[in-house]
Design goal:
It is built from four helices and no strands. It has helices spanning 11-37, 43-79, 88-113, 124-145. The longest helix is centred in the middle third of the chain and has 37 residues, at 43-79. The chain starts with 10 loop residues before the first helix and ends with a helix.
């Protein structure tokens, strides 16, 4: 119902925000799954999975996160000029993505460092991705259910 009363000028930034959020969630889940898979099994296969984890994080997760966060600011500026009187569910998104940006950065750096066979940083990557995934799920609930509004 709310989509019927919003101006058409919000369609592009809102579409790009939802696209970026979906890609961020999927890329984070992929990094977590590849990271956990890269911790076990044949050393050559594990090394290949670690390298794939880095490339998924670097090529998919980072741009998707930037798209999600940038378009969130764009739509927020259109909907609430000056940032005044924004609802609480908007704050949940910022509460998750501000430390989430640091998690993405640390994950990509650790994944890059764990491309060598004897790296210990590979253990932290899937756990950090899982923490970010839980935060993104909470933000996704807050954005879609809009509790308290």
């Amino acid at each position: 119902m709310l989509a019927l009363v919003r101006p058409d000028s919000w369609n592009l930034p809102l579409f790009l925000h939802v696209l970026g959020a979906s890609l961020t969630f999927g890329a984070t889940a992929t990094v977590a799954l590849l990271g956990f898979a890269g911790l076990r099994g044949d050393p050559e296969r594990a090394l290949w999975l670690r390298r794939l984890t880095f490339w998924v994080g670097f090529v998919l997760l980072v741009p998707a996160f930037i798209l999600m966060r940038g378009t969130a600011l764009w739509i927020l500026d259109k909907e609430y000029p000056g940032g005044h009187h924004e609802p609480g569910w908007v704050g949940v998104g910022f509460f998750v993505t501000e430390p989430g940006a640091l998690l993405v950065l640390v994950m990509v750096i650790l994944a890059w460092l764990s491309r060598s066979p004897n790296s210990r940083g590979a253990v932290a990557v899937p756990w950090l991705a899982s923490i970010l995934l839980a935060g993104l799920a909470i933000a996704w609930f807050a954005m879609s259910a809009k509790p308290g509004s």
